[in-house]
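Hey all, quick one. A colleague (J.T.) asked me to put the tryptophan job into the tracker so the inputs and the structure tokens live in one place instead of scattered across chat threads. No bug as far as I know, just bookkeeping. Sequence used:
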Amino acid sequence: MEEMVAATFEATLERSKKIEEDLPVHPELYRVLTGDRPTGRLHIGHLFGSIGNRVKLQNLGVTTYIVIADYQVLTDRDTFSSISENIKGLTLDYLSAGIDPSKGKTFIFPHSHVPELNQLLLPFLTLVTNAELNRNPTVKEEIAAAGLKRINAGMYTYPVHQAADILFCKGNVVPVGKDQLPHLELTRLIARRFNERFAANKAVFPEPQALLSKSPMILGLDGSQKMSKSRNNAIMMSATEDETAALIKKAKTDSERVITFDPVNRPEVSNLIMLISLSTGKEPEAIAAEIGDAGSGKLKSLVTDSLNGYLRPIRAKRAELEKNPDYIRQVLLSGVESARAEATKTLDEVRTVMNMKI
Ligand code: TRP
């Protein structure tokens, strides 16, 4: 895990590229598992990154399970009062961005509602050592970032729970950012050890592969490395057009008048150009050339117009769906039903190979 040395990363990247090429050719071979914690609304970094990729996979006809990891919220924060609201908000964000469970290929469910999935956690916990859990770099970073003094055991074991999230439906592709790779390595280890220990003749679990799609890195409006709600530098998908305009007006730029696309030396300006590019499909260099010496005022007004234009139908759809809480609930309930059907089959196989049938 920590030894995700360059060679391992290169191998992961190679496999990821192969899968990316094969997905449009053989969508039926893949079962994608992705997920989010219900900690708040999604911002445009999510939309242009992970959510956009999910919509693309869906439109290729790939079966996708989207787990809302509500138990994982309890690992690094005390508050639980808004979990239910956040589950619904997240679902609204997914649906308005184009995730469409009515096509029968995408399932959205909170894992707390799938007991058979959660039960896989118990045998999985016996397949890893404390030492392995203790050295997970992403867990360490999260502990540091949250400034935790008392660290609950869920913090160290949630990556094992995540293995259950992925393996309950025999997911074989997991679209991930780099920070999630240690968790995916652990899932692969658990699948391998489970098969070796209990299912030597016929593997029960696949070893899922990472899909490291190149989603553009969206910086925060303050120029910091990552757009994130907690850093107060994000534009939420569900923000109003006026709120969006006000945030962009305050965005950091630099003192050079002529606009150029130069991510290394001019990260803030280039990030804004990138947002125009993602919203309009135009090349960043062409956008920069068009603005030229009209400066950052012109740049910002273009970002505002193109981003609001891009988000308009998404926001309208969200507003429409918001009026229909029964539908949102129905989406989640039918996601839960499908997930439970899969998890029940898997748990039955697990019990069989573990000699636990009665
Ligand atoms: N840990 C992930 C995050 O913090 C969320 C998650 C939970 C997840 N289970 C998953 C992601 C399974 C991918 C697959 O964002």
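Adding what we noticed when we looked at it: The chain has 14 helices and five strands. The longest helix spans residues 325-353.
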